[in-house]
Amino acid sequence: MRSLEHCAPHSVYGFGSETEEENIAILKSASASNAPPGTSVQIHDVLMARIQNGEVDPQERLVDTAVATEFGVSRMPARDALMRLAHEGYLEQTTKGFVLPRIDHQEILEIFDLRRLLEPRAAALAAQNLSEDAFSNLEAALINARRAMKAGEREKLFRACEIFRNGWINAVPNISLRKAVQRYMTQVQAVRMMTFADPANHPVIVDGNTGLLQAFRRRDAVAAADRILRFVFDGESAYLAAHAAAEVNQSNNPGQRLLPGKTPR
Amino acid sequence: MRSLEHCAPHSVYGFGSETEEENIAILKSASASNAPPGTSVQIHDVLMARIQNGEVDPQERLVDTAVATEFGVSRMPARDALMRLAHEGYLEQTTKGFVLPRIDHQEILEIFDLRRLLEPRAAALAAQNLSEDAFSNLEAALINARRAMKAGEREKLFRACEIFRNGWINAVPNISLRKAVQRYMTQVQAVRMMTFADPANHPVIVDGNTGLLQAFRRRDAVAAADRILRFVFDGESAYLAAHAAAEVNQSNNPGQRLLPGKTPR
DNA sequence: AACGTGAAAACTGTATACGAATATTTTGTG
DNA sequence: CACAAAATATTCGTATACAGTTTTCACGTT
Questions:
Q1: Mean pLDDT across A197-221
Q2: Which of A87, A118, A180 is facing B87, going by the closest CB pair?
């Protein structure tokens, strides 16, 4: 059984239990509380946590009926959750179940372009708006990230970077811009999945965040914008390298491909 | 009854029929073709087209059962479509049906900021990518717009401008960017509703589009970006003026407000 | 033994139904 | 006549059922 530390920090329901009985019990107890967020929402969060924790095999088929029985509900909530995950980009709907998205290379490049438009402005606004609390949270996340990097704990580093990013993004006062940036979080995650695989990228990431935090601290909007812009560029470079490596890997043993080919949109 | 020319030009299913029978017939025939895009997908597209065309009243309540009966299907496809639209930001889910997202003054200003980030790049890419067909469509739309302006037909001018805008946006090769721009169509619509009320704005709009088309024709990406940026700024100015006028109007007769009050987000 | 054909299984999409929550209207009372 | 409380109505979320479609597997033929 996996440890609970793998739970997504953003998940309201931080449980990673595996057995049907446990899930049923948890859902029951949660719905017994005064706040009923809906069964499908809970399933959605649990599945998203699993996906983000890499607990879903790339060739695993998530079927609504199976998910439904696992959580002790009917097909509808499970189907809603799966379809919502699919729409958010966490899953892809095939004729035979839901699978991890075959990441479209072209789309990732497009989103890098978009992020270069949005995130510098977002960081600049955040620099002028970050609260002291937010600063300490960012700092804590960065310390955790650095520690995880030194310990070689890829997973923890991943989490820390996510917290860091969420920290400053939540300080963006322009709510619409914030939502726009957050909308591409899934793609950011997908890219991270690839780039984090190479430990050589870890120092770049941590250093980038460090510089960003320093700019934030100085309330230097210009520097923050520059930093994040460079960060996105660096991310693109790292992604391209990882993509190329995956391509080679793919051609060598086409049986188990790390990255599937293009998806016709 | 609305005329058919109001159909969304970007909709795959370019029908804007209103009666239940027509919709049923259309769905039936579509599903009879070899490509089954699913009923809920079709409903989704139709509703999105309506929203983007401003055919949905701001205080209209879209209820799944009503949509279902309108399209002659059960609640499930309608519900899927509505929830998907809500998730995409085109609708807002309330305890009593789905409604258009109530955009408040602050949010409109935020979205102007966002559009200044996105649309110049989009226009620049479109300038490099527009086909000859698209050019003639843009030109036709512009001619219609000018004619409507001279005839003082506000509604037709509105439509022509919408077609023009959709025309070049659909030529943006970066699909993700295109979707991002289109996501704020409702805001654009709301702003237009206000700014078009004042005929003094009409020449500004038509001239702006004319200049944009000229830049497109020259494949001048820089000029196109500049043009659209200025266009957004002008739109903001016009909106602010209209907003101020509406504020005065509102305080005079608070019974019928042009823009609803702020929404706690 | 390889390949094509057919049947069974699995999965999805949609239809219908029911319970729960919430808004609205009606009714009763001060 | 105003206000509160209950009844009503509307809508959502979920459950269950059914039909269509695709995949897979097994069997028979060449």
A1: 93
A2: A87
